[in-house]
Design the sequence.
């Protein structure tokens, strides 16, 4: 055998060996691609996402297709072919994984009418099996279409509501609603089953600075993007809030603002007197109020109080709700803020009483508010007590109306010893004067819900429970008869 023939024979041997390895790898792959729906897609509406993961760890993905079949008509959602390293490559396909995330029915050309609907996903790999067509996998999923909004029925809205005030709405909603309640601007006031079993109710607050024509909407959402809405017709009582000038000095900033920065991780020393004041009065104020809003999510879905709220006994009002403050530094207005609470003063380190019964959900230092306590009264209503010198309760503790919970002080952004008292409803700070008014509480809150104010005797202390906070899924209230 000549040297040339020997070399050719060796080359043929190498080729045959390589083809053998390729055949073993490509023909030996008998496992089809894996198709996984990483989110349920048994029901679909306008906003339902379709999330698919396709993988093939052996010879790689060759192609995939995703289709909706509705009443025997096929609609292609996605179709992909993937390149390979070559027909005779050991590795096969380049792609081993494919992810698809989309909202199919955001495309309005897909049919939304009733009928048999299926999701069909197919995938093939680069195996040589099935006459070099590869291993195929097919996923078929029946889909129920959801394109009807939940039904709403308004039972009793309040006749009027004041800027910065509160109110209650009663309504019925059909069973498919997953979320429902009142929406004003971007704030949601969730609905709950009414105490008398007749439908639902929602406590709501109209922001102190919202324009009188701001829409108030009753809504119900089924979680699939179908949203029923009723625009409510209200008479808004406008309030003429006061404007006050607040003078600030270098001494005040050094004495009051710098300790706040030192105790607040979210505030930094700006190296300038005025900038330090703005860091606290503006930036930190926003962050502190966001924390107060988050506390509303811990509110229990039950009434923890039975009577009107109480103003701090013997206190004088130093600042009222929604006072518009112009902060003046060196004869120049440098900042403006709204004071959303009441500053109440008696004497130094005066005993602070719980304005009503509830459960303590916050008792620690919070920026401009200094030492602060927040008490949950249920259904998103919470009271806050700021600038305290000391605490006499802890988080998780039940308190009764009139119970001493702290002592007034000068912590936070306070020039003198006083209590900053506020009421918050689902993150919106509201005017406490309504809740201090027994007649208002009786006629606007308790009466419409069929509840009676507590009469004589000691107030009942709320009992902490281990159940989760917030409302559960609503029961069907559409069939409850009116009472």
Sequence:
């Amino acid at each position: 055998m000549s040297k040339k023939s020997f070399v050719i024979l060796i080359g043929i041997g190498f080729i045959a060996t390589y083809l053998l390895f390729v055949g073993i790898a490509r023909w030996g792959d008998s496992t089809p691609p894996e198709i996984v729906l990483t989110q349920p897609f048994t029901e679909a509406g306008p906003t339902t996402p379709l999330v698919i993961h396709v993988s093939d760890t052996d010879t790689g993905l060759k192609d995939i297709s995703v289709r909706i079949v509705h009443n025997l008509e096929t609609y292609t959602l996605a179709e992909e072919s993937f390149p390979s390293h070559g027909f005779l490559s050991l590795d096969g396909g380049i792609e081993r994984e494919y992810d698809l995330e989309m909202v199919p029915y955001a495309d309005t050309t897909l049919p939304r009418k009733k009928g048999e609907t299926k999701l069909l996903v197919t995938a093939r790999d680069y195996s040589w099996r099935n006459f070099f067509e590869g291993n195929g996998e097919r996923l078929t999923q029946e889909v129920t279409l959801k394109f009807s909004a939940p039904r709403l029925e308004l039972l009793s809205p309040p006749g009027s509501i004041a800027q910065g005030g509160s109110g209650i709405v009663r309504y019925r909603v059909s069973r498919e609603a997953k979320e429902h309640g009142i929406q004003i601007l971007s704030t949601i006031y969730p609905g709950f089953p009414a105490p008398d079993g007749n439908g639902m109710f929602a406590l709501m607050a109209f922001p102190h600075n919202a324009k009188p024509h701001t829409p108030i909407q009753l809504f119900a959402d089924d979680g699939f993007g179908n949203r029923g809405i009723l625009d409510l017709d209200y008479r808004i009582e406008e309030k003429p809030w006061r404007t006050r000038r607040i003078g600030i000095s270098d001494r005040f900033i050094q004495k009051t603002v710098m300790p706040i920065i030192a105790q607040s991780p979210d505030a930094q020393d700006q190296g300038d007197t005025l900038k330090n004041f703005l860091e606290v009065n503006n930036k930190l104020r926003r962050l502190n109020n966001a924390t107060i809003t988050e506390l509303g999510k811990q509110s229990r879905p039950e009434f923890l109080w039975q009577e009107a709220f109480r103003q701090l006994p013997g206190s004088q009002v130093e600042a009222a709700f929604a006072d518009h403050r112009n902060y003046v530094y060196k004869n120049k207005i440098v900042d403006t803020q709204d004071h959303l609470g009441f500053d109440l003063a008696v004497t130094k380190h005066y005993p602070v009483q719980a304005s009503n019964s509830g459960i303590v959900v916050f008792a620690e230092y919070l920026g401009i508010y200094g030492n602060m306590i927040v008490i949950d009264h249920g259904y998103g209503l919470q009271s806050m007590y700021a600038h305290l010198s000391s605490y006499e309760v802890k988080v998780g503790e039940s308190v009764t109306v009139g119970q001493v919970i702290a002592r007034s002080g000068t912590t936070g952004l306070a020039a003198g010893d006083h209590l900053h008292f506020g009421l918050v409803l689902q993150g919106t700070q509201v005017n406490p004067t309504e809740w201090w008014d027994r007649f208002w509480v009786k006629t606007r809150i308790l009466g419409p819900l069929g509840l009676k104010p507590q009469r004589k005797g000691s107030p009942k202390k709320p009992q902490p429970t281990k159940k989760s906070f917030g409302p559960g899924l609503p029961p069907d209230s559409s069939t409850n008869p009116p009472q």
Q: What stands out?
A: Confidence is low (pLDDT under 50) at residues 465-483. The chain has three domains: 3-145, 152-237, 243-449.
